[in-house]
TrEMBL record:
This is Phytanoyl-CoA dioxygenase family protein. InterPro entries: Phytyl_CoA_dOase-like. The gene is eveO2. The keyword Lipid biosynthesis does not apply. Keywords: Dioxygenase, Oxidoreductase. One of its GO terms (molecular function) is 2-oxoglutarate-dependent dioxygenase activity. SUPFAM superfamilies: Clavaminate synthase-like. It comes from the Bacteria. It comes from Micromonospora carbonacea.
Length: 314
């Protein structure tokens, strides 16, 4: 049954060939233990091609307009060596990415791991153009619970999903420290300070080597980083998911955010269902607990972009 699960070493990032096996209990356990899981070949070639084209449009638009809106640059955008490296709210900016956010296999995996009340929180594209991108230092992701973070999400119910549009070889991939999702804050801080003191330290880390169409799930508490790179391209769409009940109790957003982001998810699902290219697939059915159906009674949405800073609770 578990022949394709790479659990040979507890240091590795476990893998799941999701179209062949589905997500098995041992994949779930391996993800919870290690803090990361690779879903090989999740995107079919046609969808991969259309998401690659959509990503190019977004990146070309950033270069053309030199905009700072929702876009992070290596330097001030008007400087000659500046390059864009990240674009926020990509579901709102591209219908192809919105349909991607309704991917049934991906959402079923999120339902298994996050729970039935999953809501989408972040949606971004992180990319390296040939112009280069600096190192992404060792870190845990944003929006951590300030107290008892490991107690709340050590086992991985707040998940960042990276959908790869290009190859990520060892010299241009995310490196992970498996099981660091269970470290307390002092150990995590001490480790990131030490490892970020030199340009590129991979002590205790493993590379997550990826192919186009692969997906990596990581627990936001797992320490990870990426090396500086020039002359190479890598585009990754990131979606983050959280349990609505955790969001409701603890934030980081205000309760109102939950219903709005549920509307975003439902709209992505409807857009995917209506697309002829996805006609043959079994759609994901969103079934949160009755008390957490917080989109009911809300007015029809006019946007899929809800800036985090307008909804922070902390
Ligand atoms: O894809 C990458 O290079 C890493 C992105 C990342 O870790 C982040 O944005 O927090």
């Amino acid at each position: 049954m578990s022949a394709t699960v790479d659990v040979r070493t507890e240091q590795a990032v476990p893998e799941c060939h999701i179209h062949e096996t589905g997500l098995l209990p041992e994949h779930l356990t391996a993800f919870r233990r290690q803090g990361a899981l690779i879903l090989r070949g999740l995107l079919d070639p046609d969808e991969l091609r259309s998401v690659q084209a959509a990503a190019d449009e977004l990146i070309d638009e950033a270069w053309r307009t030199r905009t700072m809106t929702d876009t992070i640059w290596t330097l001030e955008p008007h400087e000659p060596d500046a390059a864009p490296v990240r674009i926020e709210y990509v579901v709102d900016k591209s219908p192809v990415v919105a349909r991607l956010a309704g991917h049934p296999l991906l959402l079923r995996a999120m339902e298994d791991l996050v729970g039935p009340n999953l809501i989408p929180t972040w949606d971004s594209m992180v990319f390296k153009t040939e112009a280069g991108a600096p190192r992404l230092p060792w870190h845990r992701d944003g929006g951590l619970y300030p107290e008892n973070a490991v107690g709340i999400t050590g086992a991985g119910r707040v998940i960042d999903v990276g959908i790869y549009l290009d190859p990520a070889p060892e010299d241009n991939c995310v490196w992970c420290i498996p099981q660091s999702n269970y470290w307390d804050t002092d150990r995590a801080n001490e480790t990131t300070t030490r490892m970020n003191a030199t340009e590129w330290d991979t002590t205790g880390a493993v590379p997550a080597v990826m192919n186009p169409g692969d997906v990596m799930l990581h627990n936001i508490l797992m320490l990870h980083a990426a090396p500086a790179v020039t002359g190479k391209r890598r585009r990754v769409i990131y979606f983050e998911y959280r349990p609505a009940e955790v969001e409701l109790d603890l934030g980081p957003h205000v309760p109102e955010y939950i219903g709005l982001k549920q509307q975003v998810l439902l709209s992505c699902l409807a857009q995917r269902r209506a697309a002829p290219e996805h006609a043959g697939e079994q759609p994901f059915e969103y079934r949160p607990a009755a008390s957490l159906r917080r989109w009911e009674g809300l007015p029809e949405p006019t946007t899929m972009r809800y800036p985090h800073e307008e909804y922070w609770r902390w």
